Amino acid sequence: MTVPKALPLEILWSSDSAVAVSKPAGLATIPGRGETDSVLEQLGRQLALPSSGQDDPRIRVVHRLDKDTSGVLLFATTRTAQQHFSHQFQNNTIEKEYLALVRGRPRERDGVVDAPLAPHPTSPRRMAVVKHGGRPARTQWRVEETYRGLALVRCFPRTGKTHQIRVHLLHAGIPLAIDPLYSSPAPIFLSQFKRDYRPTRGEKERPLISRLTLHAERLRFVALDGSRVEIVAPPPKDLRAVLNQLRRHARA
Question: Which helix (H) or strand (E) holds 8?
Fold first, then answer.
């Protein structure tokens, strides 16, 4: 999927030493191989601040979201703030909440996946749950809503490992509804669950959502001045669209 580069990033919160934005799905957090742009670079242009170099102020990374995940993304603008926030992420003291649209019907209303993660033995792009070795990883989850064949789950990752929520939900038997790497790449269409759906004559049906069904909704942390901050990123248009239609036509 592509993200219109002309649209400015939505700034959710800012201080003298940090800024949080609502990251759109489809835009990488940082520059990478094959990427033409990133949130880091786009935010730098938007705020007229450098996104590389050693001098302050500049846009500095403190954590990342997968390219196709939307939601709250926090950056520092000074080295001191970068160290301050990075320390909280590394020590798992920042509280994070995600919304995940998953396939299947969870047997329980909530649960915990406490399972170490390591690189997949045969697929270098993937992570996997392992019995021995690996890095400790823990995700709590709670069912918010259920539909026919799908569910909305709120996730509370207590650690911050690569692909943690994606792999832990798969391990729990409720994989993300759309995840080309771990479950299914297939988009979600209204015709899949609206019984009386009739396509517009002469037009091809457009998917309600066609990207990773994961949204970083909330961050809670201690700012550099010692105050406690909560930042919320409302779900973007595609996720709102599919949830609204599921609520209308596919309640379980």
Answer: none
